Amino acid sequence: MIVLWVFQTFFLESFYTATKSSQVEKNAQVISRSIEENKNALGTIENVASYNSLSVYVYDSTSLFTLKYCCEYDNPVSNLNFQYHDVYSYYKLAEENDGHYMFITSNYKEDSIKGKFERQFFEEYSSPDTAERNTVRYASAPDKNVQNMVYTDIINLQDGSECFLIVTSSITPLTNTVEIVRDQLAIVSVVFVLLAVIISLYASYRIAKPISKTNTAAKELAKKNYDVDFNARGYLEVEELNETLNYAKTELAATEKLQKELIANISHDLRTPLTMITGYGEVMRDLPGENTPENIQIIIDEATRLSTLVNDLLDLSKIQSGSIQPEKSEFCLTDSIKNIFTRYAKLKEQDGYNILFESDEDVYIFADELKMSQVIYNLVNNAVNYVGEDKTVIVTQKVNGKKVLIEVTDHGDGIPPEKLEYIWDRYYKVDKEHKRGVIGTGLGLSIVKGILDSHKARYGVRSTLGKGSTFWFELDIVSVKKRNKKNSDENKE
């Protein structure tokens, strides 16, 4: 709107003049070519002049500018105040400008142009004939407000003679038009500004209201008010933001709840061994004969359990912060699993657990041996904690091409399908009732996930309610060594 207003106010007249000038010049050139080539010049002049509302004058410049042809369709010479010395003046102007000249003038302004050559004309052509001719077509009292466009051209004919072409066209006064357009644009501008202000205020209200509502709800969420609801509606982006915030609210609420449960469970797990260590220590101190190997072993076991819990908490924190990077080397995974099984000898003997390892080959991998041992140990501990009535845990090693697959299977109650994706979470427990595990701390699966992620390994779990669960992971193989049947059978015991 601003650009249109500026153009119409300041450049309309000059744009119109430039366009008109270009049109007159093109039409004059058409006429000049027809005269120069002597191709139906009269017909061309008539057609061009009538179609474009022009006045065309052709003079014989070798014979005192005798008028050869006149075709007046716009502002005849009587209104232009043409005299013969005026034609001479126009001729001289064209001669000084490479044979053609274009200018815009009124009868008032024209005097200065024609006066330049008027004295020269009378000196060259002074005679009674010229004096008589100069009285011809003189128009008095010309209209000073009328502007005219005059284009002149000197034409060299094929026979060596010369013609002088004058093409004229009046210019429509645009002063009033510009004033009218300026006033109209001013009114339109005011109307548009008012409409823009009204629309802006309305749009701002529509946009700001849901954003303000969302902002208020976000402040409540920051205060840990998880009952707040992000339900502001308006634009698509606002609705998508509210959906995201509602999801974040749900996750934050769940995370805080799980954190509280974890703190409670860890506190219980820390308090229990400390209480037992303190209790047995006081009994051994105060009661004669209680300083027995059994009581000492209980203190040792509880201290070991306490140390394991603290170490697991530290490991989990380091893994999730990214401060621990795997120290990879080539080692035999099969032998590493066998060594881990020696830790369960007491558990198998005292509590009747049946922990089996099935493998037919010695598999070598490139990984962090200590961390991979921790993975297997935690998976076996998890299986022991949730084993079924048969108290059987099976660890299977399978070679699939260039990959080795390790599976740890129990025959417990299994995991509901809707909870499978959450079991790796740091604060998640399948059963909400916390129980003191037989072995381990309850953080094993989170540690397993962190270690396997650092090795870019594939892992997962398969579970069937009432039948048990199988945790698995897969690693790249460096090499495989076959074992004889006897060694394979011994490995399954």
Q: Can you offer a commentary on this structure?
A:
- By secondary structure, this protein is of the alpha+beta class.
- It folds into 3 domains: 2-173, Beta-Lactamase (2-Layer Sandwich), CATH 3.30.450; 224-266; 326-491, Heat Shock Protein 90, CATH 3.30.565.
- The chain contains 14 helices and 13 strands.
- Strand 11 (458-464) and strand 12 (468-476) form a beta hairpin.
Mean pLDDT: 78
Mass-distribution shape: elongated
Describe the sheet with the most strands.
5 strands, antiparallel
What strand line-up does the widest sheet have?
A: 2-1-5-4-3
Tell me the name of the CATH class of the largest domain. Alpha Beta
Total strands:
13
Distance between the termini: 91 Å
Which second-level CATH architecture of the largest domain applies?
2-Layer Sandwich
Helicity range: 40-55%
Radius of gyration of CA atoms, rounded to a whole number: 53 Å
How many helices? The count is 14
Unreliable runs, pLDDT <50, ≥5 residues?
Answer: 130-142, 432-439
Taken as a percent bin, the fraction of beta residues is 15-25%
